[in-house]
Amino acid sequence: MKKITSLFVLIIFIKFSFAQSILKRDPEIDAMVKEVSSDSLKSNMYKLVSFGTRNTLSTQGSATQGIGAARQWILSRFKEYAKQSDGRLTAFIDTITYSSDGNRVNRPFILGNVVATLKGTDPNDHRLFVISGHMDSRITNVMDTLGYAPGANDDGSGTIAVMECARVMSKHKFPATIIFVTVAGEEQGLLGANFMAKKAKKEKWAIEAVLNNDIMGSNNSNETNIIENTKLRVFSEAYSVSDTGKAALQIRSLGLENDGKSRQLARYVKEIGERYIDNLQVVMVYRNDRFLRGGDHTPFVENGFAAVRLTEMNENYTRQHQDIRTENGINYGDLPEHIDFEYLRKNSGVNLSNLANLAKAPSIPEEVKVDVKNLSNSTYLYWKAPKTGIVKGYYILMRETTSPFWQKKIYTESLDIRLPYSKDNYFFAVQSVNDSGNESLPVIPAVGK
Predict the structure, then answer these.
(1) What's the pTM value of the predicted model, to 2 decimals?
(2) 70, 353, 376, 399: most buried, per Cβ within 10 A?
(3) pLDDT exceeding 70 applies to what percent of the chain?
(4) Are 240 and 304 in contact (CB under 8 A)?
(5) Average pLDDT over residues 151-157
(6) CA–CA separation, 234 vs 345, rounded Å?
(7) What gap in Å lies between CA 292 and CA 425, rounded to an integer?
(8) DSSP per residue over 205-217, as a string?
(9) Burial of residue 25 (number of CB atoms within 10 Å: 0-12, 13-18, 19+)
C-alpha cells in the first residue's frame, strides 16, 4: 500500500511539473536588463537637478542653470553613449519656436527636444519604437522660471530612465530602430510631445509603440501612506480618437472596444516586463491617463499611434508641483532624496526589456483573418508572413471576452490554424516570433471573406 501511495504521489508530481509554463528569457535581453544600474541612475539624477530649474521658459543662455544647460548636458550624454554604438546612435536637439499663447507661454521661446536615434541594422525594416520622458520641471507657480525646481521625480525619473536605456542599448544591434527622446514643454501643455507626434504623422514615421515615462521613481504616497515598490502602472486608451467612421463601426460590431492598439501595447508591456523583471507586477489601468489628467503619450494616441504611460503605483502629491519648504512637519518638494533608485532601476528595466523584445522581433504578421464562411464551433485563422525579420513561427493568443489579459499562447509554424474554440466566446490575435523567442505586437484578425 505504501509503494502504491508513493507511486501515485510521484505520478501527480510529474504531471504537475509538466503542466507548468516555462519562463524563457532571451539571454541578450536578460543581460541588458541586469546592466541597468541604480548607481548610474542616481548619478545622472543628481546632475540633472543641479541645473536649478528646468522650467521650459527658463534661461537658455547659461551653461550651468536652466533648461538650456540641462538639454545640452543630456545631448552630451547621448553623444557619449554614441561612441560605443559603431556609428548607429546619433543625437541632436530638435527645435521649434513657440509664440505666446496667453496661458502658460507668456513670451516667444525656442523649445527643444533631445532626440537620440539607434538605427536598426535591417535596411528593409522601417519600424520605429519610441521611449520618452519630459526633461522640464516646475514648482507651485508653473510660470516661475527662476525658483528652485529640481523635478527629481516629475520627470527627472523618466528622463534618466530614457538615458539609462540608451546607455545600455547603444552597445547592441537591433533590426528595427529605437528613438530615445526627452521632450520639453510638458508642464506648458505637452508642447514637445505634440511637436514630435505631429511631425511623425506628417512625415509618416512607422512608429509601432511609444513608451512614455512620467513620475516613476517614488515608492510611497501621501494621505494613504502606502509604501510599495513592487508595482508599476501602465495606462492605456481603449482605442484611438482617430478610430471614427467605418473603423468605429467595426470596433462595435466585433466587440473590440478593449482591443485598440494602445491597449494591446499595454498587455504586451505587462507580459514582457514581468518576464524580465523580478519582484515587479505591471498593473494595467484602463484609462489613457490618471483621472482628468494627461501626459506626453496623449498626442501620439491622438495622432493614431500606439502609446502608453508608465508611472509609479502610488503618487505623493506633497512632492509634485510644490515649492521646496517644510510646513506642519511635512517636507514638500520634488527632491532626489525622495527617489527609490532600486524601484527606478526595475521600472527602467521594464522599458528596456520591452524595447529590446520589440526591436529584435519580426514585424507583425500580415493580413490576419478569421474565416466566417460557415457557422461553426471551431475558429479558423489564416495570415501571411511578416514583411521583415526571420520568422520561426507564430503565437496564437486567445482569451475569454471578459478577460483583461491573454490567457493562452498556442504555437504553430503554419500560416493558418483551426482551433477547437468558438469565436463567439473568445478573442484571438496572432504574433510573429523568431528563434530567440522575441514576439511582435499581436494582431487582431479582420473578417475573412
Answers:
(1) 0.94
(2) 70
(3) 95
(4) yes
(5) 98
(6) 16
(7) 34
(8) --EEEEEEE-S-S
(9) middle
